[in-house]
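quick one before i forget lol
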Amino acid sequence: MPCKDSAHSEILRARNECWPPGARGYDTLAAFQEWVSGLKSARVRFIREQPLRAGEHFALKVVRLVVPSNPQHRRPIPACAQVAAATITITLLEPLAGTSVSGDSPVSRVWLASTATGDRVVAKFYFPSLFIPEEQYNRQDNDFILPRQCALTEEVAYNILQSAQGAWLPYYLGRNEVNLSHGEMADVALFEYINGRSLLDHKHAQPGGITHKKSDDPESHFQVVHRQHQKWFKRLREITHEMHDAGVTHCDLYGRNILVPESNLNDLVFVDFETARDDMEGGGNDLRNAVLGFTCCDDHVDELYSWCGKNKLDVLEWYLNFPTITSDLYWFAGSARNR
């Protein structure tokens, strides 16, 4: 992985350019309190006015996409992104995340939207009052990332990984700044809509639940699930290696952030790069976290471990300190199982 040191990180540079006065520990406490007071007032206005609702329109510029030349199977480019620097109008249809639904994100509101060209797109709205810190940012502890910083992080990550767009990434259609009716400026990131569901949803929806009785019968449900696990594992391993080779670590690659397109259950698409890193602090748990997204029980984890050994695949990429998946571990049932 061509990791940069932190001093040369494009992501950290983008984040550091948008700290508001008062946010960091070396700013005055009075400035911090004034900033937080403004955020609280903005949140009250947002809740009262509900500027994001079905039927709302936003005029946005989209980038013109060009299919990279590397030979990956790709989905068609959305029609709205086939014209240079086009301005389009999106119409909000329904919320996807950032509300009380599964996949809730504290730093963005995510909507399914339509365009006049017939495309369905995903619009992610980032605005300051979505996150209100209780204390000033401590650089040593990396306390928090602000909504605008998440928008910029995702933009940088998608630009670095441009050659993967349309394959294992959605097409990134650009970022706009818009003024919401309650008085806040929002960054709006626009993406291709992937019709499908998350790896986590697939795990919980499979017949027999998330605990299966081990069987060596090749026609048994246990072995059918195991064969699907093999396909997902091979694809996840391939994608994470490609991503890391490009210099990006996802840092939140759990099942909720991996989509399985309805058109191809063996394909996978990574989303939500809000906390990604492009430096040596990114860590190396992406594949391990991704495997948590589809492994359903201890017996299937053991089966995958054995299969990796037989096929000379490095199990330490994902199995080292892999948490057990027994139903009596309530911590795991309440946290990792929902990732």
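fyi Residues 100-105, 326-337 have pLDDT under 50 and may be disordered.
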